Amino acid sequence: MAHTKSKANDGKIIYPPGVKEISDKISKEEMVRRLKMVVKTFMDMDQDSEDEKELYLNLALHLASDFFLKHPDKDVRLLVACCLADIFRIYAPEAPYTSPDKLKDIFMFITRQLKGLEDTKSAQFNRYFYLLENIAWVKSYNICFELEDSNDIFTQLYRTLFQVINNGHNQKVHMHMVDLMSSIVCEGDAVSQELLDTVLVNLVPAHKNLNKQAYDLAKALLKRTAQAVEPYITNFFNQVLMLGKTSISDLSEHVFDLILELYNIDSHLLLSVLPQLEFKLKSNDNEERLAVVKLLAKMFGAKDSELASQNKPLWQCYLGRFNDIHVPIRLECVKFASHCLMNHPDLAKDLTEFLKVRSHDPEEAIRHDVIVSIVTAAKKDLSLVNDHLLNFVRERTLDKRWRVRREAMMGLAQIYKKYCLQAEAGKEASKQISWIKDKLLHIYYQNSIDDKLLVERIFAQYMVPHNLETSERMKCLYYLYATLDTNAVKALNEMWKCQNMLRHHVRDLLDLHKQQKSDPTDKAIFSKVMIIAKNLPDPGKAQDFMKKFDQFLEEDERIRSQLDVLVSPNCSCKLAEGCVREITRKLSNPKQPTNPFLEMVKFLLERIAPVHIDTESISALIRQINKSIDGTADDEEEGVQTDEAIRAGLELLKVLSFTHSISFHSAETFESLLQCLKMDDEKVAEAGLQIFRNTGQKIEDDFPHIRSALLPVLQQKAKKGTARQAKHAIHCIHAIFSSKETQFAQIFEPLHKSLDPSNPEQLITPLISIGHIATLAPEQFSAPLKSLVAGFVVKDLLMSDRFPGKKTTKLWVPDDEVGPETLTKIQAMKMMVRWLMGMRTNANKSGTSTLRLLTAILNSDGDLTEQGKISKPDMSRLRLAAGCAVLKLAQEPCYYEIITLEQFQLCALVMNDECYQVRQIFAQKLNKGLAKLRLPLEYMAIFSLCAKDPAKERRAHARQCLVKNINIRREYLKQHAAVSEKLLSLLPEYVVPYIIHLLAHDPDYVKVQDIEQLKDIKECLWFMLEILMSKNENSSHAFIRKMVENIKQTRDVQGPEDPKMNEKLYTVCDVAMNIIITKSTTYSLESPKDPVLPAKYFTHPDKNFNNSKSYLPSEMKVFFTPGKPKATNVLGAVNKPLSSAGKQAQTKTSRMETMSNASSNSNPSSPGRSKVRLDSTEIDHGENEDIKVMKSPPLQAKKMEKREDSDHLRSEIEKPRGRKKGSSAISLDQEDRSSVELLDQVKPVKTSQRGRKRAAHTSESDEQQWPEEKRSKEDLLENEDEQNSPPKKTRRGRPPKATNEELSKGETQGKGGKRGKKRPVSADEEDGDGDNENKEQKQKKTRQPRATKKSQQRIETPESDVNDTLSPESTPQKRRGRPPKTPPTPQTQPKKNFRGARSRQAASRENDSSDMDLRHDSSLENMDITPEVSMDGVNAEEDNQLSTLRVRRKPNKRERR
């Protein structure tokens, strides 16, 4: 041992036993062999072998020489590196090398050798692994901490390890690398930026994707050293984010990617960095904010992230970016929402409000992505989204942009299919989204063809998937139909109707191709192609594609035959799918992947292919209904009551019987329907009758056993069934049986003999059956029908009041509360009309007499005999029935010609009836007749009277009807260019002369120069002209102006020599002219053609008569202000849900509005007009933002002299008043009972004193001393009746036509009296003024300071009258202008009518300024299947409005007497 030491001290190199000197003089192989022995020796040594350490010290120094460190052979270098690693292990903690440079060289050498780890299949890999393991275990690199260049060594080591790591390495290699690198970070004094970059660069996405193992290594290293490295990471981000020193690192541009990765590795690494992001979210740099938002979206949305709960300020700051001004930032926030909803349902509440705002974002892409985010989350799990979020998707189904609407509709459809049809989340989830099916079908009401097609596709793929088995498909359809709401059912019915109509068009096109080629045929084909193109998306392109498709049909017999099979009534669902595939295959082009022509053809085939209904389907549906009848169906499980399911099933069959009648032709189907007729449920039997009526044409020939069983059932229903059953039974007999005359006789004779006027309940069904028989077989029963009408219908029913009606103040009651006698009278009128419609001739003057009878009913307010036995609700029903009967007769040309102008005007006044429901139903009937082009154009003028309607929803409905009818007529004229000879009856602009004539004869229009009355007329004119003038097609403004000018050159046919009547006509013309001048800039152009005026209304223009005089008073001109007419897009007034009337705030301004039309919002002169009908061009807004329509102050009336006196006079003359009634002029001559003569005796009501009520002889003091108890009791009784009857309002337009002298006397009396005090009533006046129910007492009132004109009138209303004045919102329209019955006595005070329309509108201005979303393009009444308003709903709404604005009390009992 002493010898060894001496050798070592002498500097001699001692080799292990058996190892010779290692130098450059030996071969490489020998050197490797000797080094392996050295390695073995060092491997076996441990740190405690002090002697051996001393012995081999020189060898250790020798191995670190440049000869070995720079040796060209890699095996030599590897073995030397292993030796050096062991040397560091053995001599630890002190290394035998003292030179810093030498240490650096050695560690850089070892680092270079570690690159050999890259090849895991190398023979030397184990030795490389040993090297790594050794230096990692010993932490050899820690020696370098004291070296100046230690950073270079560590950086190189890190780079090497990150480079060599790969997926071939096992877990041990990975672990040793982490151990090696972590020791450097954890035990070192500092971590340089360069070293940190070496680690962080592996987290950058580009590097991460290139070497996943390096990323995992860096991730493991950072997790291990999180606490030690955190200050250096924080410093790095501080330098870059806060100080902007991007030059300190090449990773500065990846700073946000690094933050995300570091947060995912260990959130503690960023404890001090995250607050800096809040600052960056508020940066002025858009791109920087966007980068931070993208980063935080990933951090907040990560599945296990708790960042939102741990850092709430940052979360709130991030949510604020949903409202960022930069579009891409808002878009990024919205995209993040789906991940957040799916991974963090607890944050849904925070997101909801922000997503709501973004669902109305001006940017289409953002609104679209809101839908995508919500739908994506909902499809994953419905519980992740709340009802508010689903409602946002619901709203976007009405978006202005098709892309957004489509996404919303498809999203809802997918949700519905997953959770309702497939029931993946149970019944609760299905119930939560049960509204989706209704909403999707409601979209079919939209005008866009794209919407309609998408609804059809959704229905076929998601709501009732066509690929289901027939029984399953019909079960799905059955329960879907049973659970739809009313409007959705109508939409679905309309969808089938449209598809069936298009199928007929295609069938007609194929039939035309079968005809011999000729010019007329070519024109017919072209016309049919254009019609079909209108039923496809983008009609412009569709026309070109349809022309191309038509060429294929002409040239390709195979395509034509396949299409013929597809549209044939007998085509089955499976056969239809085959035909569609075959046609598509024939038209497809493999070389053209995107083929717009083929897509258009697919749209057409989708619409016409019967994918749901065929004979097999109808049979399956019948079986499903039978299961419900038998009680074996699972109706309760499907959430439907059995009775409702059966009714809905029959209604479904009824609809399908219209569109797929051939599919019903099977014995099984008819037998099941026959059983339905025998059920007790009236609705079921009624639906069964309608189905037989629609499908039974071949029953007599093909199913004789069904015929024999059906006949007695039909006869029984016609005699003793309900009203509708009787009607359908008669039509069934007419449709099914060839010997219908015999069957009708078997029904008519017993019914005729059994008529008993004393039993009205038993008369309704016979009258209906006889009426429909009279329509279908008028010649067969012409003689008995004449005597029946004259002797029974007129005398015993209409002119006889046998039973007194129930006394009530209501104007309308539900159907089940209407008296049987009244129902009988209504059916009697209908029977007369049906009889006349069957005859279609007025040869025996029956039509003339009937019209006189109907107008007499209107003239007497429904009480024809005027005995006072009929209740007010029954009178309303009778007025409505008479008005509708006139409308029905006007649809037949032979009767239209005999309707006099006076009868037309009286019929028009039903539009202003005092009963809301009368106005409503009459307007619906009028609209229906006009929409079918059956009623003459002049009847459209009646809608102009709706401008005076106090109910906002009625005005909106009338406006919508006008828009619809005007568009129908314009479209008809475009498609039928050859009907120019009918231009007078079709061109919408020709309605203007009729309106002018109608308004000139308005009973309210008494004094020619009266400003208030002229403002009412202006209202009515503008109501129509606003729509007509919204477009100036073909110089229509100049054409209208020319018409008005021509009217002033004519005279009124009703009174050509009556100067006052003609002055009224010219004054109305001047009002119309002023509207045209102020609202049009092109009115002065030359009219395209000279208008033709209707000779029935105006005399021929007198060329020698130049009527250039202005008839308008100068005060009237201030009410005409220039402005462009608003477009006919009734977004607000129609599509927006109508606000309930009378709900406005009780502000001082609104409370002091007076009841006048002067400042109605539909007034063209109102500069601050804020009707809810808004055009999108009028305001600056985003594509779909919610816009608030600001309210402007009402137009101030011009102050006039002696205002107090004039206002007092107005308050006096506007008091409600009654009307004198004359006695009935209807009597029957006992000696002559022929039908014509009996009807001829029905004269207009004479002006005798019929029906006059006696006035109570009470003094004024008696009235004032009326006991309070009785008054309270009476008021209580009346309040109970008010739920269906709005407060009383004077009936419009029945003023006594006083002479000018009498009028001036009345004015003098009004002025002379003391203010606020009622003048004494003379005995004559009391006796002559019949309807005292509207009279009132005025008490003394302290004079108030003068305010505006409207305020003045309101202030001067006595306190005692507060409960009697109508609420402007809930007041029914006044019954309009029956002619006066008696001339006024000189003592009678003339009074102006109490006008409610203006007050109704003025008081509703608060509602007019409500929010409106411009996305609304839909309207439930834009189609023929317009949902009708429920009577009960109307009554309930008016009931809610009674207590809002009462200004006058109701008259007490004695006052009514």
What characteristics describe this protein?
single chain, 1457 residues, mainly alpha, two-stranded antiparallel sheet, 69 helices, 2 strands, elongated, disordered N terminus, disordered C terminus
Gist of the model:
The protein is mostly helical and 1457 residues long. α6 (74-90) runs parallel beside α8 (125-138), α22 crosses α23 and α22 (364-380) packs parallel to α24 (402-421).
Stretches where pLDDT is under 50 for at least 5 consecutive residues are 1-9, 1128-1457
Strand count, sense and barrel status of the largest sheet are: 2 strands, antiparallel
Number of strand segments: 2
- Cα separation of the termini: 147 Å
Provide the spatial order of strands within the biggest beta sheet: 1-2
Report the structural category. mainly alpha
Shape: elongated
Strand fraction equals under 5%
Radius of gyration: 46 Å
- The share of residues in helices is 55-70%
The helix count comes to: 69
Whole-number mean pLDDT: 75
